[in-house]
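Deliverable D2.4 — example input (structure tokens):
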């Protein structure tokens, strides 16, 4: 029998570092997500250490659905399905099926890495997806492009989100100024599952013109976006004095954003940063069908998002 290399390694597996123009990102094998992103020597992503297990979904890629599915149950194409309840305390299926899958290196250059994995069919999600992600850094910051191909004989329901926590120099969540061009938010019950929508105008959730988060508790999905001329949208975080800012942008495939202020964390992570999550669909989309993508057999879907420092140590 072959010898097994049992030497301890990072909990997140292989680490792939890419650099260019003063920007550096670290992508990991386990979950294929983003462990770190820095520019000009400042860490704009509140990630985790190499010897630490990923906490709070930091930097993870959420496939084939973001957020929660009520009771893990849904019906697609007339067939009832039951997913594993990955969030037992709320009796939900949370953040898809690839967060802890190993991803493999496809190619690497100094400024980019392409990784891939295959999500195998399971009783709760009986479709096979072939997944690829290209992570790139350059003068304009971090750019990420996702591809998903349905390798099954039947159409597959699909959604994607990402989960980076963003931070600014000497600024916690309370003092961060957020601008998000979203006109409505999703109302949720005690299990953080959707029960309706509400307009944000005039409320503490109205970030359309930019406002300090203050004491507002955020674990909130936003929709009804004001889109830019390309059809995409962006969220901008800045310090109160405007000395530092960072933008996270997403192309037209992403019609929803989730903001999370980290209130469930213990110190020192408690409200230290804000998760700003572009999503292709809202919570519980497998049940509601709202903005749910359906991939035909052999169809490949692709979309991009990125992070761009605008002011402060990492600005151009």
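Example output (designed residues):
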């Amino acid at each position: 029998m072959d010898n097994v290399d049992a030497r301890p390694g990072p909990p997140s597996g292989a680490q792939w570092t890419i650099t260019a123009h003063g920007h550096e990102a670290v992508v990991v094998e386990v979950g294929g997500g983003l462990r770190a992103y820095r520019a000009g020597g400042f860490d704009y992503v509140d990630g985790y250490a190499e010897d630490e297990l990923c906490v709070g979904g930091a930097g993870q890629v959420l496939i084939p659905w973001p957020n929660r599915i009520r009771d893990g149950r849904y019906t697609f194409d007339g067939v009832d399905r039951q997913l594993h309840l990955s969030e037992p305390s709320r009796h939900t299926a949370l953040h898809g099926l690839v967060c802890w899958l190993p991803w493999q290196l496809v190619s690497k250059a100094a400024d980019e890495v392409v990784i891939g994995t295959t999500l195998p069919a399971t009783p709760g999600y009986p479709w096979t997806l072939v997944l690829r992600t290209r992570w790139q850094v350059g003068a304009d910051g971090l750019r990420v492009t996702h591809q998903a191909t349905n390798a099954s004989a039947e159409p597959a329901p699909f959604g994607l989100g990402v989960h980076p926590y963003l931070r600014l120099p000497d600024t916690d969540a309370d003092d961060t100024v957020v601008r998000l061009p979203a006109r409505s938010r999703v109302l949720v019950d005690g299990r953080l599952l959707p029960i309706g929508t509400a307009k944000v105008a005039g409320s503490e959730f109205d970030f359309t013109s930019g406002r300090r988060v203050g004491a507002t508790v955020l674990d909130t999905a936003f929709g009804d976006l004001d889109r830019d001329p390309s059809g995409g949208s962006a969220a901008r975080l800045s310090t109160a004095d405007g000395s530092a800012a960072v933008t996270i942008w997403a192309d037209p495939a992403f019609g929803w954003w989730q903001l999370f202020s980290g209130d469930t964390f213990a110190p020192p992570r408690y409200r230290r940063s804000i998760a700003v999550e572009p999503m292709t669909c809202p919570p519980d989309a497998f049940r509601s069908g709202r903005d749910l993508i359906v991939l035909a057999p052999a169809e490949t879907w692709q979309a991009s998002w990125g992070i761009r420092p605008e002011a402060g140590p990492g600005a151009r």
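The two ends are 55 Å apart (CA to CA).
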